[in-house]
C-alpha cells in the first residue's frame, strides 16, 4: 500500500467510509512522513490535530518512537486525547495536576513503549526532572515533535509564552530525520517568519482563514449594567449553547451569577478552578447541559465542540488574533453561528493593565541578578524578603533568566551562572509596542464600516480576502442593541449588591500557620475600586472630599446587617476601624456613621504607633506583613469578648486585616469580621 492509501484507510476508520481529506491535510501529513519540518497555518476547525494523530499512527506502525505534543492548555490536551483514542493511539499527559506516583507510572510506560502520544505543557520543559529523566526514558527516542499553537513560539505572537523559547533548543538537538510539525490558526506573516527563525526552515502549508458560518456584529455598550441586561435579554434567542468571554476572572463569576439569577443555565470557567472542576464544566458545555459557559482565556486554544451556536464577548479582547481564535470556537459544523462583541468603557484600561504586566521590567531583572551575584543561592521566599517586588514578578524574572541561562535552579533554590548578562530590552520593547498596535487595531475593528470578517483575516495576512456577506456591516444587524430600562435597573441593583468576598489568611508570609483561633473570619468589600457605581464614590470620597458619602454608609450598613443576620445570629458585635496617621479621621468617621446606622457601639480598639509606608507601596507578602507588624497596638476597652466588625477603606493584600485581627483575637475578642469599602486587588 502507498502512504496515501494507508492514510485514506485510517481517515475512514477515524470517521466513516465517505471521509476525505480537506485541502492541504494530506500535503501536511505527507510532509511529516517524509521527515520534513512543517508549519501548518489553517483556520480553526480545519483539522490540524488530525494531521499529527494520523501521522503518529503511521509512524508508530513503522516502528518510530512516540510523538511529543507541546500543548499550551490542559483543556486542549484533554480534548485531543479523546481524539487520539479513535485511531487506537495510547495517549498520556504530564501536567502539574499529577503526583509523583502518577508521573512514575507514565515514565514506566514510556520506557516500555506503551505510550504513542505524550502531551506536555511548555512549562514542563523547565522541569529538571522531565528534561533529565523523563525524556531519556522514551523507548526508541522521539518519533515526532509537535508544537501546537505555534504562534506562542513567536515573540510577536498575541499569546507569547516565554517557555516556548526552550523548544528551539530541543528542535536543534533532534536528529535530522525526526519530523517537526508546528500548527496554528493565528499567525500573520511576521509571526510565521519569527517561528521559522526560531525553529528553522519549514514548509508552510497555509489555507484561507475565512469562516463562512460566522455572523459577526459589534455593539458599543459602555455601562456594565447595560451589557448584563443585554445578555439576559438575548442569550436565550441564540441557537444552541455557547460561550461568553470576559477579560477578568471576577467578571466571569459576576456574569455567570447574573445569568443564573435570570433563569439562564450558566456557569463560569477560569484557570483558578481545579482540574476536576474544569473537566466537569467543559463536559457540561459539550453535552449541552448548560446554555452558556462564561470563560476567560483559560478556555481557548483547541477546545473542540462542533455545534457551538454563539460566542459573545462581554469585553473587548486584546487583539484581533485573540478575537479570531476565540470566535473560532463557534460554528465548526453549523451553517450559522452568531458572534457579538460588546464594547465597554473599562475594556481599554483592563488591556492596558495586561500590557503593563506582560513582561517584567529590565531593571527588576537586573536587581535580581545583582542579588544572586551577592548570595550563593536563594529561594523565592528569601528573594521576596529582600526585594520590594511582587512574588509573581520575581517568578517571571527568574523564568526568563533561566531560559537565557543567566540563572540556574536546583530544587527550590536559584543561583547565578557564569554566563555574561544579556537582557533583551529591545526585543521586549518591540513586543510591547506590537501589543499596543494590536489593541489599536482591535479598537478600529469595533467602529469599522467594512466587512468584519474581511477586517479580521486581513490582520492574519490571509491572501484570499473577500466580503463575508453575513456580518452586520454586510447584511445588517441580526440582533438589537436595545435594552429594556427595567432590566437595566435590575442589573444596576445586582451590581451594587455584588460584594467582593475574600478569605482570611491562614498562614504568615514565612508559610507558618496562623492558629485558627487567631484568624479573621472571611470578609467582604462593598465594591471593586475600579468599578463605576460604588467604586466611583469611594474614589471621590478618598481623594477629593476626604469624606465618604452617606450613600456609602447606608449601603455598607445594609450589607453588614444582611451578612450578620445570615451568619452571626447569636453574636454580640461592636464596630472598630483600622487607624491611619495620614488620614486620621476618614475611616473612623465612616465607621462611626455605619455603627450609628446599625445601632452598635463604635470603639477605637487600635492605635497606630509607628508611621510606615503605605501598604500599596509594598509589593509582596513578606514586606506587606513586615510593614504592618509592630505598627499598631490594641487599646484597653470594656468590650473584650465581643465580636468585632473591623472596617477599612481599601483591601488588597489582606495583611492589615490579618495582623490587626490576630492582635484583637489574642487580646480576647471574638470573631473578627473584616469589611472594606473597596477591593483594589487587580488579581481578578
TrEMBL record:
Keywords: ATP-binding, DNA-binding, Helicase, Hydrolase, Isomerase, Nucleotide-binding. Residues 29-205 form the Helicase ATP-binding domain. The keyword Isomerase applies. InterPro entries: DEAD/DEAH_box_helicase_dom, DNA_helicase_ATP-dep_RecQ, Helicase_ATP-bd, Helicase_C-like, HTH_Mga_DNA-bd_dom, P-loop_NTPase, PRTase-like, PRTase_dom. It catalyses: Couples ATP hydrolysis with the unwinding of duplex DNA by translocating in the 3'-5' direction. The keyword Heme does not apply. GO terms for molecular function: hydrolase activity; RNA helicase activity. SUPFAM superfamilies: P-loop containing nucleoside triphosphate hydrolases, PRTase-like, Winged helix' DNA-binding domain. Residues 227-373 form the Helicase C-terminal domain. Its EC number is 5.6.2.4. It comes from the Bacteria. Belongs to the helicase family. RecQ subfamily. This is DNA 3'-5' helicase. It comes from Neobacillus rhizosphaerae. The gene is dbpA_2.
Amino acid at each position: 500500500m502507498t502512504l496515501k492509501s494507508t492514510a485514506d484507510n485510517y481517515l475512514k476508520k477515524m470517521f466513516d467510509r465517505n471521509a476525505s481529506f480537506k485541502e492541504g491535510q494530506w500535503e501536511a501529513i505527507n510532509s511529516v512522513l517524509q521527515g520534513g519540518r512543517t508549519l501548518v497555518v489553517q483556520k480553526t476547525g480545519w483539522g490540524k490535530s488530525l494531521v499529527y494523530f494520523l501521522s503518529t499512527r503511521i509512524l508508530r506502525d513503522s516502528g518510530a518512537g512516540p510523538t511529543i505534543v507541546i500543548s499550551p492548555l490542559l483543556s486542549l490536551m484533554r480534548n485531543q486525547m479523546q481524539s487520539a483514542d479513535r485511531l487506537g493511539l495510547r495517549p498520556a499527559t504530564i501536567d502539574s495536576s499529577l503526583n509523583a506516583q502518577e508521573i512514575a507510572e507514565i515514565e514506566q510506560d514510556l520506557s516500555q513503549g506503551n505510550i504513542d502520544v505524550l502531551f506536555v505543557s511548555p512549562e514542563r520543559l523547565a522541569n529538571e526532572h522531565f528534561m533529565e529523566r523523563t525524556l531519556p526514558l522514551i523507548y526508541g527516542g522521539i518519533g515526532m515533535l509537535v508544537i501546537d499553537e505555534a504562534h506562542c513560539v513567536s515573540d510577536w505572537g498575541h499569546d507569547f509564552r516565554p517557555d516556548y523559547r526552550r523548544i528551539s533548543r530541543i528542535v536543534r538537538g533532534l536528529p535530522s530525520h525526526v519530523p517537526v510539525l508546528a500548527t496554528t490558526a493565528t499567525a500573520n506573516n511576521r509571526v510565521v517568519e519569527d517561528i521559522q527563525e526560531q525553529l528553522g526552515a519549514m514548509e508552510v502549508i497555509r489555507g484561507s482563514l475565512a469562516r463562512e458560518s460566522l455572523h459577526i456584529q459589534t455593539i458599543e455598550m459602555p455601562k456594565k449594567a447595560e451589557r448584563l441586561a443585554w445578555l439576559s435579554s438575548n442569550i436565550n434567542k441564540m441557537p444552541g449553547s455557547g460561550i461568553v468571554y470576559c477579560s477578568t476572572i471576577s467578571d466571569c463569576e459576576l456574569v455567570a451569577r447574573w445569568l443564573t439569577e435570570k433563569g439562564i443555565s450558566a456557569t463560569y470557567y477560569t484557570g483558578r478552578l481545579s482540574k476536576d472542576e474544569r473537566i466537569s464544566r467543559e463536559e457540561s458545555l459539550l453535552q449541552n447541559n448548560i446554555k452558556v459557559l462564561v470563560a476567560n482565556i483559560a478556555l481557548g486554544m483547541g477546545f473542540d465542540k462542533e455545534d457551538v451556536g454563539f460566542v459573545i464577548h462581554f469585553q473587548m479582547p486584546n487583539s484581533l488574533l485573540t478575537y479570531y481564535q476565540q470566535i473560532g470556537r463557534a460554528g465548526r459544523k453549523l451553517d450559522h453561528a452568531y458572534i457579538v462583541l460588546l464594547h465597554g468603557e473599562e475594556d481599554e484600561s483592563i488591556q492596558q493593565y495586561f500590557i503593563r504586566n506582560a513582561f517584567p521590567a529590565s531593571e527588576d531583572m537586573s536587581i535580581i541578578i545583582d542579588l544572586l551575584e551577592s548570595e550563593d543561592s536563594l529561594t523565592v521566599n528569601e528573594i521576596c524578603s529582600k526585594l520590594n517586588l511582587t512574588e509573581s514578578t520575581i517568578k517571571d524574572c527568574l523564568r526568563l533568566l533561566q531560559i537565557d541561562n543567566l540563572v540556574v535552579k536546583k530544587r527550590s533554590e536559584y543561583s547565578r551562572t557564569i554566563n555574561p548578562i544579556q537582557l533583551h530590552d529591545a526585543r521586549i520593547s518591540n513586543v510591547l509596542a506590537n501589543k499596543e498596535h494590536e489593541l489599536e487595531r482591535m479598537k478600529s475593528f469595533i467602529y469599522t464600516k467594512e466587512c468584519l470578517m474581511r477586517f479580521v483575516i486581513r490582520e492574519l495576512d490571509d491572501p484570499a480576502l473577500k466580503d463575508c456577506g453575513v456580518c452586520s456591516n454586510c447584511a445588517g444587524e441580526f440582533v438589537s442593541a436595545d435594552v429594556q430600562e427595567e432590566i437595566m435597573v435590575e442589573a444596576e441593583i445586582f451590581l451594587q449588591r455584588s460584594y467582593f468576598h475574600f478569605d482570611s489568611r491562614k498562614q504568615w508570609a514565612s508559610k507558618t500557620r496562623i492558629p485558627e483561633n487567631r484568624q479573621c473570619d472571611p470578609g467582604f468589600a462593598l465594591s471593586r475600586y475600579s468599578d463605576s457605581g460604588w467604586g466611583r464614590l469611594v474614589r471621590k470620597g478618598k481623594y477629593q472630599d476626604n469624606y465618604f458619602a452617606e450613600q456609602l454608609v447606608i449601603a455598607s450598613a445594609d450589607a453588614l446587617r444582611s451578612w450578620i443576620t445570615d451568619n452571626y445570629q447569636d453574636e454580640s458585635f461592636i464596630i472598630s476601624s483600622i487607624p491611619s496617621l495620614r488620614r486620621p479621621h476618614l475611616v473612623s468617621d465612616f465607621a462611626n456613621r455605619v455603627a450609628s446606622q446599625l445601632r452598635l457601639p463604635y470603639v477605637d480598639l487600635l492605635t497606630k504607633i509607628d508611621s510606615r509606608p503605605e501598604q500599596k507601596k509594598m509589593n509582596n507578602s513578606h514586606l506587606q506583613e513586615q510593614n504592618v507588624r509592630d505598627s499598631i497596638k490594641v487599646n484597653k476597652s470594656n468590650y473584650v469578648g465581643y465580636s468585632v466588625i473591623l472596617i477599612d477603606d481599601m483591601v488588597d493584600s489582606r495583611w492589615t486585616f490579618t495582623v490587626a485581627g490576630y492582635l484583637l483575637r489574642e487580646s480576647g475578642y471574638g470573631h473578627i469580621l473584616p469589611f472594606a469599602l473597596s477591593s483594589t486587588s487587580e488579581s481578578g
